[in-house]
Amino acid sequence: MVINKRKKSNAKKRYLIASSNPDSIISEQFRMIQTNIKFSMAEEKSRIFLVTSPSDGEGKSTTAANLAITIAQRNEKVLLIDANLRNPSLHSFFKTQNSDGLTDILNGRISFYDVIIHTEMGRLDLIPSGQISNNPVELLSSQMMNDLLKMALRSYEVVIIDSNAILDVTDTKLLAKQCDGVVLVVQNGKTTFEKATEAKKVLEFAKAKLVGVVINQ
After folding, report:
1. Which of 144, 189, 158, 131 has the alpha carbon at shortest distance from 51?
2. 3-class SS at 8?
3. Which of 70, 92, 177, 207 is the most exposed place for a label (fewest CB within 10 A)?
4. Which percentage of the chain shows pLDDT scores above 70?
5. Diameter of the chain by CA atoms?
6. Would you say 71 and 65 are in contact if contact means Cβ atoms under 8 Å apart?
């Protein structure tokens, strides 16, 4: 699936086009992606999806946010989690604070329900990353993270997780194993064939299920 992204003067419109311009061609492409993902995983009843890319700057966070919005627009309750604990961005997309978030839950400082942010997109909720952690690998591979995902499934029909680039750090490999499927985002003209192939191999080695590839132009 190919996504064409055009520059917008307004940051919110640029990043959250599925909300600001739901009738656009790009928004329809996001709807097609989420439909394809659901069909591909329907028999397994999978509900937790990780969005990553080979390297930073390829549009994974934008894709994660818009996929979450399009699913919520279908009247499903969605939780979007910013698990990029090194360079988070989803809080800025939704114009929210990032003082409390995922790291605070995993450190046992705040409860799961106390950090949830209800967005303007109806049935879409957000857990921002929280303060940047100096031990992201330990946090994301912890039993607390596993328990958090189980808790999320009690309240939400779908969980979308934005992560770090798969080839840059160990965090994402560990997180991918805890998810039902992975969406890989690559950028046309930036992502080399070698990088994309390597990312696919890393996911296979981590025993993660690749359910779709998004090509940004």
Report:
1. 158
2. coil
3. 207
4. 82
5. 43
6. no
List, for residues 2-24, the tens digit of each pLDDT value.
Answer: 444 444 334 444 566 656 556 55
Q: Which parts of 42-93 fold into alpha helices (H)?
A: 60-72, 90-93
Q: How far is CA 54 from CA 189, 206, 212, in A?
A: 13, 14, 14
Given this model, what pLDDT does residue 27 score? 62
Residue that has been written with the tokens 């999320």 in this structure: 152
Q: pTM of the full predicted structure?
A: 0.86
Q: Compute CA 110 distance to the chain's CA centroid, rounded to the nearest angstrom.
A: 22
Residue 47 sits at φ, ψ, to 5 deg, of -135, -10
For 12, residues 6+ apart whose C-beta sits below 8 A from its C-beta are 20, 93, 95
Written as six digits, the tokens of 129 are 């990353």
Residue 75: count other Cβ atoms within 10 Å of its Cβ. 9
Query: Which domains, and CATH codes, for the chain?
Result: 2-216 (3.40.50.300)
CB 33 within 8 A of CB 212: yes
Of 213, 138, 148, which Cα lies nearest the Cα of 182?
A: 213
Q: Quote the pLDDT of residue 59.
A: 87
pLDDT in tens, 175-212: 998 998 899 998 887 788 899 999 999 999 988 988 88
